[in-house]
Design brief:
Bound molecules: adenosine-5'-triphosphate, magnesium ion
Strand order of the largest sheet of chain A: 6-7-8-3-9-10
Number of strands of chain A: 20
Structural class of chain B: mainly alpha
Number of domains of chain A: 2
Helix content of chain A: 10-25%
Order of helices and strands of chain A: EEEHEEEHHHEHEHEEHHEEEEEEEEEE
CATH class of chain B: Mainly Alpha
Radius of gyration of chain A: 25 Å
Largest sheet of chain B: 2 strands, antiparallel
Structural class of chain A: alpha+beta
Oligomer: heterodimer
Number of helices of chain A: 8
Largest interface: A-B, 31 and 20 residues
CATH superfamily of the largest domain in chain A: P-loop containing nucleotide triphosphate hydrolases
Strand content of chain B: under 5%
């Protein structure tokens, strides 16, 4: 039974549909990321869930109850904003206590829960400070404590880390996941940083132009993208073409890539041209010809970039460019120079078929 | 090192050069006359030459020990305070709505609010005196409706002065409050709603405290402009509703008692300053977190 249901959500701004019949179900305790390019409707969807933006069509159901007609102050959702949105005229304590004071629990209970929440975000002792006396990371922690202290039904985070520097961002995201798991709160995390989404999510909902393209675990999203958009958007891909030379059976075809033949598990028609994606880290290169199954073809190294743990090679084969990322542990990058001739290869199972029908 | 220093001095020089014109105006046409006025207020009065060459504090003593004059001080402050409070009350909703409006409508509304400033002070005051006089529009309307039998005394009262003053000064308050309303981050309002606060609660806990700096800045402007205003009380209050600026004018320009006029002028500045300082103290105490920028 899903805890949050978004059913056919539609939002139109000035006659343009920004969210187009969006559907998503989230289980209790799950952390789901909304990931997508700028302007794809992530914030709009989140604002509809929180109640800041009216729903034009569709339903939002939380724990079996429709909430899309309630005002934001009746929805019991905790939101963490990109720019923290702390109340500048209140101390850290008063910021966190704000929601509790409205719920009319006793003074001592309020105090206890505020201190507990601040301890959870590791800010004990900061109660009397004002927001402007805190660093960005600390402000975001206060904001998190303020949202969680009211025990909301959902935790909504809209790019909560994008105003922090890279190092702190990584620390904070781990902290957020830890707190989220401890509290067990159902969470939606909006981001356009795919690494962030891959690292923290139970599931990622990849959004594109107002729709959810695919909602799956990070591993599935990365290894089994369902649409071309997802293939291109998550991680990096090379786009390659193969020509079908022989049909070997259902889901078994022989294709020709760069003059070499390889058996791939796809349905095809004879002589058809097919598009595939392959990730840079799934391309292997060697100085000598490799075994038959991982077909090797000749390529020239055009450029070489040392990236620390790996080296990126820009290869050219039959006038097409390919990017290959090779771990420096596997292959000593000193052996290969710009201009060298190498053999490139991949395993057929690493080919991601394109849905783009020609 | 040397170069850096030279660069710095050059920069400072540029800053001062840019400030020079306004500085000259400020010093020669404001500070210096004020200084002479201050000196004058400690001189005795001489019927033939105006300012005699003897020092005295009699001007101040005379003013501060006379109940009549103290009454005028109280009236001046009272009118200015009333004007300030009324402008706050009527300007806040206006500012609130304008800051919510968008694009072109906002520009038109702002222009509309500023329109009283486009008309000459004197003309506007005479306009009000036509409206408020014994057989003016207001009285005639009320009488023809049968709500009153004989005309109400509206003109030449403290009320008419306050009305005229509010009309001139409320644009300052609206602009000032609008400025601070627009500086509020919309996500702060959303955060408040998100935490369970309805519109009323959000207004009193978040919006109002965050606009106190704007209210304060507007109040300072409105108060100091109204406490020292001359034209409006002169036309809408007349000799019946004397205020300090009118008194100073009367002493200096009509009775030619320059030293006494100067002393009144200085007391006016002093009272305005004290009131503003006290006001800011109260405001800061009531909202410790909001800096009065
Ligand atoms: N209040 C509004 N009025 C009109 N158009 C809007 C409004 N809010 C958002 N839009 C439009 O809706 C689209 C989606 O906006 P949204 O803020 O949801 O994108 P997003 O996915 O959050 O992007 P980002 O990653 O840049 O934050 C954009 O094209 C935006 O211009
Ligand atoms: Mg956004």
């Amino acid at each position: 039974m899903s805890y949050l249901c978004l059913e056919n959500l539609v939002k139109t701004f000035n006659k343009t549909e920004v969210v187009k019949k969006l559907n998503l179900e989230i289980k209790q305790g799950e952390l789901v990321s909304f990931l997508g390019p700028s302007g794809c409707g992530k914030t709009t969807t989140l604002n509809m869930i929180a109640g800041f933006t009216e729903v034009d069509e569709g339903k939002i159901v939380v724990d079996g109850k429709p909430v899309h007609l309630l005002p934001p102050n009746k929805r019991e959702m905790g939101m963490v904003f990109q720019n923290y949105a702390l109340f500048p005229h209140m101390t850290v304590f008063d910021n966190v206590a704000y929601g509790l004071k409205l719920s009319k629990i006793g003074k001592s209970e309020t105090q206890r829960r505020v201190l507990e929440a601040l301890e959870m975000v590791r800010l004990s002792g900061y109660e009397k400070r004002y927001p402007k006396e805190l660093s960005g990371g600390q402000q975001q922690r206060v904001s998190l404590a303020r949202a969680l202290v009211i025990k909301p039904k959902l935790l909504l985070l809209d790019e909560p880390l994008s105003n922090l520097d890279a190092k702190l961002r990584q620390e904070m995201r781990e902290e957020i996941v830890e707190i989220q798991k401890n509290v067990g709160i159902t969470t939606i995390f909006v981001t356009h940083d795919q690494e962030e989404a891959l690292a923290i999510s139970d599931r990622i909902a990849v959004m594109y132009e107002g729709r959810i393209e695919q909602a799956d675990s990070p591993v599935s999203i990365y290894n089994h993208p369902k649409t071309d958009f997802v293939s291109r958007f998550i991680g990096e891909v090379n786009q390659i073409q193969g020509k079908v030379t022989e049909i070997l059976g259902t889901h078994q075809s022989k294709l020709n890539f760069y003059g070499n033949e390889q058996i791939v598990a796809v349905n095809a028609m004879k002589n058809a041209e097919m598009d595939f994606f392959i990730r840079p880290e799934n391309i292997q290169i060697s100085l000598v010809e490799t075994n038959d199954r991982n077909i090797g073809f000749k390529a020239k190294v055009e450029r070489k970039m040392f990236l620390g743990a790996k080296t990126r090679y820009i290869l050219k084969a039959q006038n097409k460019h390919l990017i290959a990322d090779i771990s420096n542990v596997v292959l000593n990058s000193n052996l290969i120079h710009e201009g060298s001739s190498v053999y490139a290869a991949w395993k057929p199972e690493h080919l991601l078929p394109s849905r783009n029908v020609r | 090192m040397m170069q850096k220093k030279r660069k710095k001095t050059k920069k400072q020089l540029e800053t001062w050069a840019l400030l020079l014109p306004i500085l000259v105006i400020f010093i020669f046409f404001f500070l210096l006359p004020l200084f002479f006025l201050f000196i004058t207020s400690f001189k005795t009065f001489d019927a033939s030459s105006g300012i005699a060459n003897e020092w005295t504090i009699q001007n101040y003593v005379k003013f501060l020990s006379d109940p009549f004059y103290l009454g005028i001080v109280w009236r001046t402050v009272k009118i200015a305070l009333l004007t300030t409070i009324i402008t706050i009350v009527i300007s806040y909703p206006v500012a609130f709505h304008i800051s919510k409006a968008n694009g072109r409508i906002k520009n038109y509304l702002t222009l509309l609010v500023l329109s009283p400033l486009l008309i000459s002070m004197v003309i506007r005051c005479y306009g009000w005196s036509i409206l408020l006089s014994n057989n003016g529009v207001v009285n005639n309307t009320l009488m023809s409706l049968g709500w009153i039998d004989k005309p109400l005394t509206l003109l030449y009262t403290e009320l008419s002065v306050v009305i005229g003053m509010v009309h001139v000064l409320f644009p300052y308050m609206v602009l000032s409050i609008m400025g601070s309303l627009e500086r509020i981050d919309p996500s702060v309002i959303r955060a408040s709603q998100n935490l369970g606060a309805g519109p009323v609660r959000t207004f009193f806990s978040i919006v109002l405290p965050l606009t106190l700096p704007g209210i304060f800045a507007g109040s300072v402007m409105v108060f100091s402009l109204s406490v020292s205003s001359f034209v409006t009380p002169a036309i809408l209050g007349g000799p019946q509703v004397k205020v300090m600026s009118y008194l100073a004018y009367e002493q200096a320009a009509v009775l030619l008692n320059w030293p006494y006029g100067a002393a009144i002028g200085f007391l006016l500045i002093f009272i305005a300053t004290i009131t503003i300082i006290m006001y800011s103290k109260i405001l800061v105490r009531s909202e410790k977190g909001v800096a009065i920028q």
